[in-house]
Each structure stands twice: as structure tokens, then as C-alpha cells.
Amino acid sequence: MKFFAESLQVFKKVFIPLFALVVVSTNIDQYLNLYIENALQDPMGAQSQVYFFGFLSLLSSVIFPTLLVTMALFALNLQTGWTQSLGAFLKKYLNQLYIETLRSWGKTLLWSLCFVIPGIIKYIQYLMVPVIVTSSTRYDEGKEDALKASAQIVRHNWGKILGIIFVFQILIPMILASVFNSYRLIWNTPVQSLALSALDTYLILFSTHLLFTIFRNEVRKHDAHV
């Protein structure tokens, strides 16, 4: 019950700005993908445009997910002692979070170039990086590495982490993409698009809260043994 009560508080505090960002990011992503598909089908060829919009799509896939998770973590940290504004939270953590995210992507890519399975394992191990960067006192004090700390927490919670990945990054996205993908563009189907964005917002908050709870439990275990 405590978890759902916290989820409700988080939902109230950050839903509107997070929802607005989800709407923007979703439609930008859909527009870029649509443009790339049309360019690829152009019989005259549009290779330079494909590269350009492909780069923008890649940039979007880095900027928006990290920003969305950071905003969700802001609301969660309000429950555990953070008292300043969203702007102050982003100013303190967002740049560092992008750095650590790119570090984790780089290491994951290097492992993937050798073998696929190790790359997937690395991706899973670094899932907790945003939580570490924004919520770990030891990381804030420079006493731990975000990637190593994330891997350690994941090792202690493999079952829970795999469950979160399967439900929130595989199962639900597959269902939504296969059934509702044609309703994503807000200028084509505004009501359906906004409804799907609201659902996406809730899923981001809920899944991030689950990861945050795992992190807090690990911190409590660590403190109990110190």
C-alpha cells in the first residue's frame, strides 16, 4: 500500500510536465521515423536526408528518454528529502546523467560488437544508472562509480530487474506498437494520441518508481550492515 500511495504522490507532482514532454518526444519521434520511411521509399533517392534525419532520431533517442526519467526521479526524490525545484534538480543532475548514460551506452556497444549476449547483459546491468546518479549519496560524494554501482544492485536483484524489463520495455511496448502505433501522431488522431501519451507517462512513472524502490532497499541493506 505504501508503494501505491507514493506512486499517487509522484503522479500528482510531476504528471503534467512529464506528460507534456512525452507528447512532444513521441510526436517528434513519430515524425522523424515517418520522414525516414518516406525518404527510403523515394525512387529518386534521398540518402543525405536519411542520414540527417537518422542522426536526429538517434539524438532524440538519447535526449528525451534520459530527460523523462530524470523528471520522474525528481518527483521520487521529493519523497526522500529533495526540497528544491525541478529546475534545480535538472541543473544539478541532468548533465552528469547524460555523461553516465553515454558511458553505459559506449560500454554496452563495445560488448555488443564482440557478442550479442554480453551486450544485452551490460545493458541490463546499467539499467540503474539514472537512479544512482540522482539518488546515491555515495555517488554524489564521488565515492562510487555509477556503472559499477548499478551492476552491483542488478546482480542482487536479477529477477526483479528482468521482470521490469520484460513488462515495461518488451511486452507493453510491443502491444502498444502493434495495436496503437497508427494513433500516435497528434495531428492525425489528437484524442487517441493524447490518451496514449498519458498511458506512456504513467508507465514511465511506475517503472521508474519500481527501480527507485529496488535502489532504496539496497541502500537500507547496506546501511544495516555498516
Briefly, what is this?
The chain is an all-alpha fold and 226 residues long. The chain has 9 helices and no strands.
Key features of this structure:
226 residues, 0% strand, 9 helices, 84% helix
Strand percent estimate: under 5%
Number of strands: 0
Give me the Rg, rounded: 19 Å
Number of domains: 1
Shape: globular
Major β-sheet profile: none
Structural class: mainly alpha
Determine the mean pLDDT.
Answer: 89
Low-confidence stretches: none
Order of helices and strands: HHHHHHHHH
End-to-end CA span: 29 Å
What is the count of helical runs? 9
How much helical structure, as a percent, in the residues? over 70%
Transmembrane segments: 50-76, 161-183, 195-215
Protein name: Glycerophosphoryl diester phosphodiesterase membrane domain-containing protein
Keywords: Membrane, Transmembrane, Transmembrane helix
Organism: Bdellovibrio bacteriovorus
Can you describe what's shown?
- This protein is mainly alpha-helical and 226 residues long.
- The protein has one domain (2-224).
- It has nine helices and no strands.
- The chain has helices at residues 2-40, 47-78, 86-114, 116-125, 129-135, 137-140, 146-156, 158-180, 190-224.
- Helix 2 (47-78) packs across helix 5 (129-135), helix 3 packs antiparallel against helix 5 and helix 5 (129-135) packs across helix 7.
- The longest helix is centred in the N-terminal third of the chain and has 39 residues, at 2-40.
- The model has no long low-confidence stretch (mean pLDDT 89).
